[in-house]
Amino acid sequence: MSKRVLLVEDEPNITEAIRFLLQREGWRVSTHADGATALDAVNRVSPDIVLLDVMLPNRSGLDILRDLRAAEGTADLPVVMLTAKGQERDRALAESHGANRFISKPFSNAEIVDTIRALMP
User: Fold this and answer.
1) What's the rounded mean pLDDT across residues 101-112?
2) How many Å is the Cα radius of gyration of the chain?
3) How far apart are CA 20 and CA 34, in angstroms?
4) Is the previous residue joined to 106 through a cis bond, with omega within 30 degrees of 0?
5) Nearest alpha-carbon partner for 34 in 21, 18, 15
6) 65-88 tens-digit pLDDT
7) Are the beta carbons of 33 and 63 closer than 8 angstroms?
8) Global pTM?
9) How distant, in Å, are the alpha carbons of 15, 26, 60, 72, 87 from that of 55?
10) Which domains are seen in the chain, by residue range?
């Protein structure tokens, strides 16, 4: 059975590129674009790993990450933060909220695949 990835990203071009890349690797990919309902998507999809954009409409990815870490069922769920703001301060903030990895945009295909392979349970 293939592993399930949930991609929470609001930029359609990035969503499609990552979805294509990950499906090519054999993973089942679900997508979601709204921060306000991202936690509902996590609960509905039950992913093995989440790729979570920092800047989403209606709710920050960092707020979502904090809620994931606070909930018993998702406290250990691997989460990779994606951001266009690759500053060290952003990376430190994501790590302090419990991100497993942090990838700055633009990223390479290999970086996405290698990161998910390393974290996939």
Assistant:
1) 92
2) 13
3) 20
4) yes
5) 15
6) 999 999 999 999 999 999 887 677
7) no
8) 0.94
9) 14, 27, 6, 25, 14
10) 4-119 (3.40.50.2300)
